[in-house]
Design goal:
The chain is about 45% helix and about 20% strand. The protein is of the alpha+beta class. The protein has a domain of about 160 residues: Ribosomal Protein S8, Chain: A, domain 1. The strands form four sheets. The chain has a seven-stranded mixed beta sheet with strand order 2-3-4-12-5-8-9, with helices on both faces. Strands 1-13 form a two-stranded antiparallel ribbon. α1 packs antiparallel against α2, α3 runs parallel beside α12 and α6 packs across α7. It is globular and about 55 Å long. The model has no long low-confidence stretch (mean pLDDT about 95).
């Protein structure tokens, strides 16, 4: 493991993207979003995933010249077409538009079709929270896990984000419908470490902490068992219906993950007459949560997203941790 300064990482990403024909302003934003993901400690969807994005560009899955555009409007709700463009740029544009609609109508919603992997989804939830909006967003994916009771992958792990403004910084829930995201499984497999708890089944149908075996079987455990696959299915069908895009089933028929469907919702809290009371109740809830008795002397109880600023500050000061092999692969691009 080595540490890379934030600006060096961002400029390396930008250089690679410019060589793939991406416009300078797009390359600047795309590289910043990815570097900031690692800066915040979400390494699985930052530097660790950059080579996957570049491979998709090289294979013409991702079109660096294409941008998401609106194609149908219903007041506070719009449908957009990602046109096969860069996933995080499309998602950024759609969340930005959802926030603008929320500032005008209190609620803003964008449903996006024909887009690509959005890298770290929490990024777009934070965009909403930083504008005093609640953000709710999700995506469908290629089939990645079986429906409950099945053996073959039929549903996506369809990540869901919930972001809520708070005095101490945004509350951020960013989770896949599988107990461990595929990015996390890949990290554990690469580092040859066991998962902290059983995360899925091996090819013999036995529960295992071996991430590599779970990746081979494509049988990760869903969150909440049958509830997780039910939620994944519902999120998939809602995203495809609202956007007019592809379901997980039809994405899977294309052989690789592309042209997925996503939804971006923003609710403008500043429009509410009781905004101050909402803020006080949120803070009171967080204070109460921290008064929980820890399970042991080393445990701490915190709200989701609480450590983000601490990790960001440390990584700005010391550099961002990156696996040496991954960094060398990025440099080779």
């Amino acid at each position: 493991m080595i540490r890379i300064p934030f600006e060096m990482m961002k400029e390396q990403f930008k250089s690679v993207l410019l060589k793939r024909g991406m416009q300078c302003s797009d390359a600047e934003l795309c590289s910043t979003l990815i570097a900031e993901t690692s800066l915040d400690g979400v390494y699985t969807h930052g530097a660790n995933r950059f080579s996957v994005l570049v491979k998709a560009i090289d294979e013409k899955v991702v079109d660096v010249q294409a941008h998401a555009m609106p194609y149908e409007s219903f007041g506070c709700f719009e449908r957009w077409d990602g046109q096969g463009g860069v996933g995080n740029l499309n998602a950024y544009a759609c969340m930005k538009r959802a926030i603008a609609l929320a500032k005008e109508h209190t609620i803003g919603c964008i449903a996006l079709k024909n887009t690509n992997h959005w890298m770290r989804p929490g990024t777009y939830g934070l965009m909403a929270a930083e504008q005093d909006c609640i953000g709710i967003l999700w995506t469908n994916t290629i089939p990645l896990m079986p429906s409950w009771g099945g053996l073959d992958a039929k549903v996506g792990n369809n990540p869901l984000v919930l972001a809520i403004p708070a005095q101490e910084g945004p509350i951020l829930v960013d989770m896949a419908m599988s107990l461990f995201s595929y990015g996390k499984l890949e990290t554990y497999a690469r580092e040859d470490r066991p998962l902290p708890v059983a995360g899925g089944y091996d090819q013999e149908g036995q529960l295992t902490k071996d991430a590599a075996q779970i990746l081979l079987s494509k049988r990760p455990l869903p969150i909440g068992f049958w509830k997780g696959t039910s939620l994944a299915l519902a999120l998939d069908l809602i995203a495809a219906s609202l956007s007019g895009g592809r379901t997980t089933r039809s994405v899977g028929m294309m052989g690789s993950e592309k042209k997925v469907s996503q939804v971006f919702l923003a609710f403008n809290l500043a429009a509410f007459s009781d905004r101050k009371n909402i803020e006080k109740e949120i803070q009171a809830t967080l204070d109460d949560l921290r008064q929980s008795e820890p399970v042991d002397g080393n445990a701490t109880v915190r709200f989701p997203g609480e450590n983000r600023q601490k990790i960001r500050s440390e990584n700005l000061r010391l550099g961002i941790p990156v696996d040496t092999t991954i960094w060398q692969a990025i440099l080779s691009l």
